[in-house]
Amino acid sequence: MDQLTTQMPKLPDSEKITINLGYVDLGQIDLLVQEGFYANRTDLIRTAIRSQLDRHNDAVKKSVARHDLDLGMRHYSRRDLEAARSRGEVIHIQVLGLVALAPDIDADLARATIGSIRVLGALQAPAALKAALGDRIH
């Protein structure tokens, strides 16, 4: 029996950010790394961020519910948008996490089916698609 399988492209599980730190803070981080408390600067910074996110976990949950956000990763394929168009639906994407729009989605299809995009996290899409949806990305 022939089985149809759709392979989703491999998406990175993180995004690089840049921060500026004062020299004393940076020195303290380096000291903790040197003393073996953390493997490297990144390890300490990730641990500190996770600690703060855990500390505010209840507030985040309430905000996610209040703003009706999907939590996690949402991938939209050309097929998803074509199905929405055939049903006459307009999609309003609201995600805390990652939204990935497939590279084979053309601008006309996206504009016909995506009413708005609100992402707290990251939006991965071809530059031309982001430009076409620029007035709908919040």
From TrEMBL:
Signal peptide: none
Domain of life: Bacteria
Pfam families recorded: RHH_8
InterPro entries: Arc_rbn_hlx_hlx, RHH_8, Ribbon_hlx_hlx
CDD domains according to UniProt: RHH_NikR_HicB-like
UniProt-listed GO biological process terms: regulation of DNA-templated transcription
Name of the protein: CopG family transcriptional regulator
Organism of origin: Asticcacaulis biprosthecium C19
